[in-house]
Amino acid sequence: xxxxxxxFFFLGGLVVLLILLILVFIFWKIIxxxxxxxSVGCTKGQQGSxxxxxxxxxxxxxxxxxxxxxxxxxFHHCNLLGRGGFGPVYRGKLEDGRLVAVKKLSLDKSQQGExxxxxxxxxxTSIQHxxxxxxxxxxxxxAQRLLVYExxxxxxxxxxxxxxxxxxxxxxxxxxxxxxxxRGLQYLHEDSHLRIVHxxxxxxNILLDDKFQPKIGDFxxxxxxxxxxxxxxxxxxxxLGYTAPEYAIRGExxxxxxxxxxxxxxxxxxxxxxxxxxxxxxxxxxLPEYAWKLYERSSVIDxxxxxxxxxxxxxxxxxxxxxxxxxxxxxxxxLRPPMSEIVAILTCxxxxxxxxxxxxxxxxRRRKDEKLSWDTISEAFPSPLKSDSPSLxxxxx
Length: 397
Ligand SMILES: Nc1ncnc2c1ncn2[C@@H]1O[C@H](COP(=O)(O)OP(=O)(O)OP(=O)(O)O)[C@@H](O)[C@H]1O
Ligand SMILES: [Mg+2]
Prior knowledge:
The protein is α+β, with helices and mostly antiparallel strands. It has two domains: 58-150, Phosphorylase Kinase, domain 1; 157-396, Transferase(Phosphotransferase) domain 1 (Transferase(Phosphotransferase), domain 1, Orthogonal Bundle). It is 39% helix and 11% strand. The chain contains 13 helices and ten strands. It has helices at residues 2-39, 65-71, 114-125, 157-161, 171-191, 227-233, 236-239, 245-250, 255-271, 287-296, 306-311, 315-328, 339-346; strands spanning 61-62, 80-84, 87-93, 99-104, 135-141, 144-150, 206-208, 214-216, 361-362, 374-375. The longest helix is centred in the N-terminal third of the chain and has 38 residues, at 2-39. Mean pLDDT is 81; it is low at 32-57, 229-235 and 378-391. It binds adenosine-5'-triphosphate and magnesium ion. Magnesium ion (MG) binds at residues 84, 204-205, 217-218. It comes from Camellia lanceoleosa. This is LRR receptor-like serine/threonine-protein kinase.
């Protein structure tokens, strides 16, 4: 009798233990991941939730792949905004009506695991500035990796600068764009908690909101790809004109490479043309080279987009922008000022006593026998122009 009671309690205990173990298993394997996913912001696009991994307040959403598929109408080609080195970008409309840009990262290039991917997304999301495009979330589904950005109504600057859209920007708006990019870069290089070199500053990576406020896109993207593949991932020939000589030739990468690209971009914005156009007469083909030629002839103001000339602009402000661009295009990285100094020059708070030397630029005409050729790099530097040169203002106001 005593024996069978003990057996009864033993078996009963065993069954209860088993049930408890099954419940724990169900909780960890089925319920918890869902709850965690929701807590990282989730499929419903809710934001500002707690990140259970670090305990930090986050503004990132984790999107369900099917929701993104629906938002982009199954990644329909009519929603394709463009295709860059990292993969195609689609316009999407979320269930709550928000417009987003969904970037599908190319699978063959990114070999990251899910946790590494999420860690990088969290890192990038922590970098926020009014002149940087906001990454609002991501999706990782099997091998698929997608990034979800805020949608920028006026798309990218290349469409305007390269005449793909008939939008005209007056000088005030162009200046606002130049200054905004400079401030965004200053934040990435100097003020953010992470030091970020963008690597790919160019017109298509400058996005414009409904008020034509500029936001730098694609910063931190390099983190998703192995080092050697990042370099190949962008259309190198297309971006060659933006690439600093020390990066193109020796692979030396620093903030100064971004500063060089920014200088090229400023000249493009002022003149409304591509940095390289082999259809133009020989002396005009390379924008920095042509700008410098005009500068030497004291007629650098002729660089200005003819449409902007008709609309009117403040000459000394445009000359200030060109002066800043020349400083950014200096052949030696250490001669290029940091972005904070460029911002100060643009906003008339900085001295412009530094006289630029002849900029470095790529010369594709010589590329038949040489792979890459840089003017001014192997030449002796020309002596800096006299400070009484009439083309550019020499001191700040
Ligand atoms: N957040 C966004 N809002 C609106 N349009 C966007 C957004 N992000 C990208 N686009 C559009 O999608 C196009 C493709 O962008 P993507 O960044 O993939 O290519 P890219 O900038 O030309 O090249 P790269 O891969 O070297 O950056 C851009 O030119 C832009 O017009
Ligand atoms: Mg881009």
